[in-house]
Write a structure and sequence with these properties.
By secondary structure, this protein is mainly alpha-helical. It contains six helices and no strands.
């Protein structure tokens, strides 16, 4: 699966992953460690790291296919941004609060 796609799904579904999956995915996608570096850090085989990354990417993709959290977030974000161009200062304030709330979640 595409690096960017997986990287974009992690914030939405990381809490549904096992601790080990989260750890390996974060090393690989956020800290840009190689398979060998991750394997050495966790004292597991390079193949185990590769398999975990591949399987976790598939899991993240399945979650998105079923739950659409990322897609729905992006839809709301686009709508908020479009609305910002058409509201007064009070409306902007309310929309900014909604956007901030989305980012916290």
């Amino acid at each position: 699966m595409d690096f960017e796609k997986v990287n974009g799904l992690i914030p939405f579904y990381e809490n549904l992953l096992t601790e080990r999956q989260r750890e390996i995915i974060k090393f690989y996608y956020y800290e840009d460690l190689s398979l060998a570096e991750i394997a050495e850090n966790l004292d597991i085989s390079r193949n185990a790291v590769y398999d975990t990354i591949r399987k976790t990417a598939q899991i993240l993709d399945r979650y998105e296919e079923q739950l659409h959290l990322k897609r729905d977030y992006e839809t709301r974000e686009t709508a908020y941004n479009r609305l910002l161009d058409h509201v007064d200062d009070e409306g902007r304030k309310i929309l900014q609060e909604l956007i901030n709330r989305e980012e916290e979640i």
